[in-house]
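User: Structure tokens for this complex, please. No commentary.
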Amino acid sequence: MSAPSDNMPIPAPAIHSKPLLIRHLPYFIGAAILVALAANMRFDGYVHNILLQATTFAIAVFGLSVVLGLCGQINLAQAAFFGLGAYAVGIGTTDLHVSFWLCLVGGCVISLLAGAFLGMSTLRLGGHYLAMVTISFQQIVTLVMINAIWLTHGPDGVSNIGRPDLFQSSQSYLAFCVAMLAIVGYLVWHLSDTKLGRAMRAVRDNELAAGVNGIDVFRTKIYAFALCALLGGLAGGLFAGGFAYVSPDQFSFAESIVFLTMSLLGGVASPIGSAIGTGLLILIPEWLRFLKSVPGLYLAIYGLFVILIIRFMPDGIWGFVADAFARWRAKLAAPPVAGALQLKPAMTGGDTVLEVTGLSKYFGGLKAVDGVDIAVKRGGVHALIGPNGSGKTTTLNVLSGLYVATAGKIVLDGTDITNMPPHQRTASGLGRTFQNIRLFRSMTALENVEIGAERPGNTMVGKGDDALTERAMEALTFVGLGNRANELISSFSYGHQRLIEIARALASNPTLLLLDEPAAGLNSTEKLELHELLKRIAAQGLTILIIDHDMTLVSEAAQHITVLNFGRRIADGESMAVLRHPDVVSAYLGSE
Amino acid sequence: MDLALQLLFTGIGIGAVYALVALGFVLIFRATNVVNFAQGEFSMVAAYLMVVAVEAGLPYWAAFIVALLGMALVGVVFNLGVYYPLRHRTYLPVIIATIGASILLANSVLAIYGPQPQVLEGWFETPGIQVGPVYLDSQYLLIIGVTICLVIFNFWFFEKTLLGKKLQATSQDKEMASLLGISVSTMIMITFIYSAVLGGLAGILVAPVLFVSIQMGSTIALKAFAATIIGGFGDVAGAIIGGLALGVIETFGAAYISVPYKDGFAFLVLIAFLIFRPQGIFGERVAEKA
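Assistant:
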């Protein structure tokens, strides 16, 4: 999905000079003050319980902000993971007489493993599967909690749950939970700017583009889902210690919906939104207690809330505020000045960068590509042309791993990549762009290009975030958009979006660059600029394989042309000779 | 052996209900590319409408018609209130909205009617007939009969009528369909109405066998969804075979393994299919085009 909306509030990064911990010092000071307040202020039992509930629920909702907000995957079983953590602490500290800390960690591990297992079985498939499987999992967990009486005490629940010796009083336990909330909140908040966080956002925005930019989509989704489950388990364990009693109805499907609503209301993209949503949805029902006197009424209102929020405020309360802030900041933040982009394509193989032999791709009985040979020589521009339906784009998709070849062999710079998934081909040095642009639409231009620069095995990027940003800025400057690096993708014209896509591929320092109809949809000025850009790329020794309809561009830019028709190669050779070849002329113009 | 035959009959009967709801899933999925998570609530709401209408003193057949008309209305409101405003968004907002709608429907009924399960009489006076070793419950016979008729009707409607072909065209290529003068929004509206009525029919038929309760919707929906995956997602024949298979598996599982975990078998079968054969019995692997 592109999350609930297309305009996620993403803070514009700049090149950082101060160490991270010092820049984030205000956060830790604020958190310390909150912990001190929780430890020292006198609350009556009612307020204390509400605070404890809000604190533990917020940690579980942070989990949803990772899986749903960052990674765009749904989880309708967060209450089940919460329950696993809670029962681990409940059963562990009472029946099994194990220390609280061990139980808390155990609960986290159980939740993590359950989450990872669900993820591994389902996340290769579409989001609908995940939604249904998580609902089913939720039902199973509830069934076990109610029916496995020997383990869970059944509907009676577990009481007299222990706390750690260090935090025996309810006041100190609350302070401990607030401290945990602050730590988890910090990690989740910071996650979106790490390599894993960027990968998650890329997956959320566009799975295909994430894959061909070197991200292992499946693994990233599993990490997000397992992390969400882990946070659910942690929150549940803290909850059980705080209230000393757990029962199955506290971890039902209805509670999963409450978590989801909290996350959506506050804003799914940020932990701040999670905290806001959790706070509101715990306080509002307390103010409107009369609603709870009619069974079902308050959940019905939650359901209505969900529909209305999705319809009218897809980014939630915080998303709404932060979006305005991000746009304002993007205008202010002057992007750093960048040096010249260096392209140093790897040279491990021989003269031929890409050797394709006998490549075939059948869809059922349709032979879209049928025994095609292509040899792309190192350096320069090689064009793959052919009339509509000749199999060009299918060839490109087989080359980049989006389709699996029916037969044939693909060797990139001496490495056989025929059976690799897209992200491994990218790691081996393949870069590509798409005919219909596939950028990560909720991110800035710079962040898009950073994801390209992050390709595994990119030798042109040093260690650390600053080096990454520098490389991305160089690539953006190379295509002429360095001064607009911090703007969101939606504010760029079509032609500029195409340039950003090329910059994203260049930042990864590929060995071979595949361009899928780069001139499509460009006006004549933009085409000239594109032609210039291709020359500058080729001048640095990077090999380009280009697919296009634009004969002017192809004949001027390419030194070598391969022509396909009906899935077969009908001509191959030096540009001018090929374009005069009678078969090619008849394929394009029809024979007499 | 006699027990096995008896269980087979019951399993097919309950499986037919899953098949009907699964069919509703598939039709909406094909028309909109979205799974309607409130599909099960259609069955639940229809069962309650039926209970209300019978209690109001209507004859059984009239109550039946009133309940189905009510479901048509629910389909219209559902489309206009939940799907239509979000039709240009990606699938995740839409499925979240249908989940919201499912919570809204179930809990509104709970708020109005209370948590006490209701009882709905069966259609026939005679409870059933004994054929050899197997006792054929009349309501199960009715469910199986109606399902067979609906499968035949469905085939005739989508393959032989112009409206059915328009609906198929819409589900396959919305842009092209609208260029050919088909009103896409009307076709989607018809799909929602048909699915709501279909789900409602399943709910009314199964109500005398189960209790009429708030939970019946989500329980049936989960099974029906599992059925669509087992059969092959998006495939009409797959949904029906998957539903029947699931009903049989579940009935045998409850009889021979464990009653309290009866509702868990669907989940286990679902996970097994997702791991070993995610495309289902009939499905083909589909990939997004680049």
